[in-house]
Amino acid sequence: MKKLLLLLVLGAALPQCHPATVARRPGAAKSLTIAFGSCNRHTLPQPLWDDIAAQKPNVWIWLGDNIYGDTDDMTVLRQKYDAQLNQPAYRQFRQQVPTIIGTWDDHDYGRNDGDKTYPFKKESQRAALDFLQEPADSPRRRQEGIYAAYEYAVGRKKVKVLLLDDRYFQDTLYRDAQKVYHPNLTGDLLGAAQWQWLEQQLRSSTADAHIIGSGIQFLPQQHIYEKWSNFPAARQRLLRLLADTRAKGVLLISGDRHIGEISKASVPGVAYPVYEVTSSGLTHPATNNAGEPNELRVGPLVTEKHYGLLRFREQQDQLFVTATLKGEDEKVFYTQEIEVGR
């Protein structure tokens, strides 16, 4: 069976050499469960936390819009983060899940469609890392941007998680009166330092699978909203990097869209299909979205409250993952079985 490449997010953390790499150790069993999601308005009902906790995830990954900050006032931003931390169901969830990691998108960054020109991005970074309860001596507190790497063991296999920062260095994108985004043909998303870091993480990796997470979608190109393809040079650079570094078993994960879906693409130079799991709509999915074009989609478009779930398992020296979009009361919207490494 062909090895697969997916953009997602992934239990026992192993040390790494780069200063932006963070080590965590949830446990080194032959299985690993990672849950993830995005678009969480702190003032709305949050019915999914007990459902997610019931899956007994080793890791929870925030994929952005973790709160709706939308402010230049850092006192207000911190008050909203504190409200989420103290939301009763989430507070209990934090006590049940061994490891919580994450990145951000625009609303928790501080401004809708926020980019590198946001004047309070350094202060916002400190607030976001405080919310994630990042240790005081964490490398993430000494760099610009909140990108980070993690490694987890699955039996004798290793899974590396790479969380990208798609806001701190993002070039400006024009949006017209009809709220349509116009591609920035030469624009960048990650910035020079983060690109260098990402290449080093992939080239030097000894992991058997790699999960790459971003606030906005990597693969879909047809919808009119925020996406990597609004920065076509950056998107092509990322896909080319996957081929050039020959990284094993890459998975992609993303949020932002208030919908859930799984996309699949063939990438030149990569010997297996690339999958992306988008999970977005913890509190307010786009229930009025009757359908939108995505020629890469496999399975349904999910417009109910949901979260993403990845169950990794080592089996006969191979690494497999079951990727699932799930809702309340164990409702399964779609499941995809994937072989990610051997």
Give an overview in words.
- The chain is α/β, with parallel strands linked by helices and 342 residues long.
- Helix content is 20%, strand content 28%.
- Strands 1, 5, 6, 9, 10, 11, 12 and 13 form an eight-stranded mixed sheet that branches. Strands 4-3-2-14-15-16 form a six-stranded mixed sheet, with no helix packed on it. Strands 7-8 form a two-stranded antiparallel sheet.
Give me some keywords for this one.
alpha/beta, eight-stranded mixed beta sheet, disordered N terminus, about 350 residues, 16 strands
How do the strands and helices of this protein lay out in sequence?
Elements: E1 5-7, E2 31-37, H1 49-53, E3 59-63, H2 74-85, H3 88-96, E4 99-103, H4 106-109, H5 121-131, E5 148-154, E6 157-163, E7 174-175, E8 181-182, H6 191-203, E9 209-214, H7 232-245, E10 250-254, E11 260-265, E12 274-279, E13 297-302, E14 307-315, E15 318-326, E16 332-341
Parallel strand pairs: 1-12, 2-3, 3-4, 6-9, 9-10, 10-12
Antiparallel strand pairs: 2-14, 5-6, 7-8, 11-12, 11-13, 14-15, 15-16
